[in-house]
Write a structure and sequence with these properties.
Elements lengths: L11 H17 L3 H19 L11 H14 L14 H11 L4 H19 L8 H8 L13 H19 L2 H6 L16 H7 L1 E7 L4 E4 L1
Antiparallel strand pairs: 1-2
Length: 219
């Protein structure tokens, strides 16, 4: 997705990771069993697709699923660091979410209708069939709420929700976890304490370690 000059120094992944913080935190607040259910569903769908069995959505139509994949990949495209949203199974994740948490259906399908109507009105074709620059023209009108016109309100609302769900699906996937370089509870063989530069920035020192409260104290 193209950006204005004020955003040119922020990489695509930096921007999406910043936007992802709250939706991913919300996902991680779910019960562990619910998180595992979603991950298991997506992993099974991706494994089946790799073996030649096409994913059969329960909520999306085939045309809607195509649009979801195109839009999700515009938000998180493949790059030199990791795979795209579709590589991570985000469309499958969204399909699961529409069934498991049906309140999302109230904005998802109308939003897909809206974005296709915009594409048809401007370019005479469905969003998924439009060129990259044509699709970007639509997203640039709705991706920045503070700059969007009142006429784009429905699109802004849809895109904000869709972007959040894309982020949740991506960074809760195996591809997304690898992208974050998250290692989990990895045993540290050597621990030499906090780096001196970090201690200096925090204004604390090991010389004044409070053994009673088990914390560092200001210099």
């Amino acid at each position: 997705m193209s950006t204005d000059n004020e955003n040119k120094d922020m990489t695509r992944r930096d921007a999406v990771q910043m936007l992802a913080a709250l939706p991913v935190a919300a996902f991680l607040s779910w019960p562990t069993a619910d998180q595992e259910k979603v991950r298991r569903f997506v992993d099974n769908a991706m494994r089946a697709a790799a073996e030649g069995t096409a994913f059969a959505p329960k909520f999306f139509t085939a045309a809607e699923l195509k649009t979801v994949g195109v839009l999700a990949d515009m938000i998180i495209p493949r790059d030199e660091r990791s795979g795209s949203a579709t590589d991570a199974g985000v469309p499958e994740f969204m399909d699961f979410m529409m069934i498991d948490r049906p309140a999302g259906q109230n904005w998802m399908r109308p939003g897909l209708v809206w974005i296709n109507a915009q594409s048809n009105a401007r370019f005479g074709k469905q969003f998924a069939d439009a060129t990259q620059s044509e699709r970007e023209a639509i997203l640039n009108d709705i991706a920045w709420p503070a700059r969007a016109s009142a006429a784009m309100a429905d699109g802004v609302n849809f895109f904000n929700r869709f972007r959040d769900l894309t982020a949740s699906g991506f960074w809760s996937s195996r591809v997304g976890v690898k992208d974050l370089k998250y290692q989990g509870n990895t045993f540290a063989v050597d621990w030499n304490g906090c780096p001196p530069a970090a201690l200096k920035k925090l204004g604390v020192t090991y010389a004044k370690f409070d053994r009673k409260k088990l914390r560092l104290t200001p210099e």
